[in-house]
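Lecture notes, unit on protein representations.

Consider one protein chain, 258 amino acids long.
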Amino acid sequence: MISETDIVFLYHDERRNFLVRVNKRSLHTDKGFLKLDALIGKDFGDKIETNLGIPFYILRPYLYEMIMKVNRKTQILYPKDIGMILMGASIYPGAQVIEVGSGSGALTTTLANFVRPNGRVYSYEKNEEFLENAKKNVEKNGLSSWVEFKCCAVDSEFQEKNVDFIMIDIGSPWDLIEAAHRSLKGGSRLATICPTFEQLTRTVFTLEEKGFVNVESVEILVRRILVRRGKTRPEQRMPSHTGYLVFATKTLLPSTKS
């Protein structure tokens, strides 16, 4: 049963859907307005009608919508890349995770969701405007209890040690690979995303030089399918290149690779 302050996903169609918190405000749409406190006492899966009698379905919020509906001040990591990061990382309930480059809080939201109830995400961002926006997005998604934001630039050392996973999302990830090596548990994973081949190449070589193994580089492409009676086909546009993901695992000894 839905209570006041719960987060719900109101869905009418692909263009008209909203991630909202239940309160005493109204949500105005081109199909009329909805009084959000009318959701209280209803169950997920029910529907509610606007003042014009147009139905919206009351759905459980899910991570995809939380990520895609963040207020953006920066480019975000997309679900297609975040899904691969979750599979290639050491993230579990109770994990200690460092994120460098809070951006708009899309990945922060996901990491916080998976480390709870007793884990922690330490999110570093040197741009105060970006950090405040990311913080608001994480709070809106109800996950701020598991995130500690830090407004500072990391030079050569992270404050946290013996962490389970580090994600580096900055323009020059190679600058922080040595610092990441110092803070990671032995055998744990690091990931980064590089927009260009030049950044990718320098990052991979630096990882190998600094004692990381099992280095893997991938690009994730997703193509949606338009399902129509008698004319099903792929969409003409697709979220293709967003970046090259790099994964690597820390060893306890320096690399001997030349």
